[in-house]
Amino acid sequence: MARAWRDGRIAAIVSLTCAGCLFDYGFFGDGEEVVRGVLVEESFVQQAAPWVDVLFVIDNTASMEAEQEALAQGFGSFIENLEEAGVDYQAGVVTTDVSGPDAGLLRGVPWIVTSRSEDPVVDFEQASQVGTLGASPEAGLGAAWLALTEPLRSGGNRGFRRDGAVLQVVVVSDTDDRSEDILGPDPAAAFLSFLSQERAETGAEAFLSAVAGPVPMGCSGPHGRAQPAYRYTEVVEEAEGVFASICEGDMGAVLQAIAASSLVYPTTFRLQAEPDPDTLRVAVDDLRLDTGWLYDLDPPSVVFDEPPDPDARISVRYRLAGGST
Q1: Cβ distance 239 to 264 under 8 Å?
Q2: Share above pLDDT 90 across residues of the chain, in percent, rounded to a whole number
Q3: How far apart are CA 233 and CA 219, in angstroms?
Q4: C-alpha angle 117/120/125, rounded to 5°?
Q5: Does 33 have pLDDT greater than 50?
Q6: Model confidence at 152, in pLDDT bands (50, 70, 90)?
């Protein structure tokens, strides 16, 4: 038990177990407890390498056989890029068909391909062969939303999403999104709102990338024609993802670019309680920082302008909001 002077009286700092937090209570010299507010100290360690959860949403309608094969062949380049960077990754596959009971359910065995899988390339190639019997309209945004929200998030797709992991949703389709039945009259705005919520809840970036038909004319290539994907383009641009033409012959190069865009370290560190902002003190590797970060109220978080270095230790000390001092 450490001791500190407050207002000429001895106060005891009592450390309780709370996932790295310290709770501070004041006592008079005769043992009578007084309300002085609660002092909290939280510690975080920056990831040694980025964590990335990649959800591929693959169009499984009749025109997509060649594109699916090209995607499977190019996945080796995607994995190679992530493994060279030492990334802890997870990948899963759903389809654009949301007409049946399996809408949004991850495909394949295992349903999550990870950096610890014995042969992740083979696992993904098998998962990505989703067939061409899917129903229209193709609802890529809606399928992704179903896969990443309840009840599937903690049910059939349990284990896919991780706190602190970047989310990269990659839609592969030769037509534009039609998710009104799931996301309402403005699916693009609804999905952008979902990505914003993901950032807030997990403390990591969330992107949408698309391999689809470029606007305004669409395209034709070795695998066939593609309609212009206005809605996917809108979300990709707002979410700062990667857009690539599905008519490109080399899917491996496209996937390499998407992998590179996913290598993002966390800048947001969520607090367990709401602080009095005036009492916030932040240090990185024991060096106090008075600039280079800000406090975000909803949810309570410290957000850095630039991500702390790999393995850096972040300490945040504050008094709880509403407490007396």
Answers
A1: no
A2: 62
A3: 14
A4: 145
A5: no
A6: very high
Amino acid at 181: D
Degrees to nearest 5, angle at CA 208 with 242 and 155: 145
d(CA 37, CA 16): 15
Tokens matching residue 220: 């034709």
pLDDT reported for residue 238: 96
Domains contained in the chain, CATH given: 2-46+267-319 (no CATH), 67-261 (3.40.50.410)
Confidence grade of residue 41 (pLDDT, cut at 50, 70, 90): very high
Give CA–CA dist 314/118, Å, rounded: 34
Residues 170/173/175/180 CA torsion (nearest 10 deg)? -50
Phi, psi of 7 (to 5 degrees): 50, 35
CB 11 within 8 A of CB 36: yes
At 104, give phi and psi (nearest 5°).
80, 0
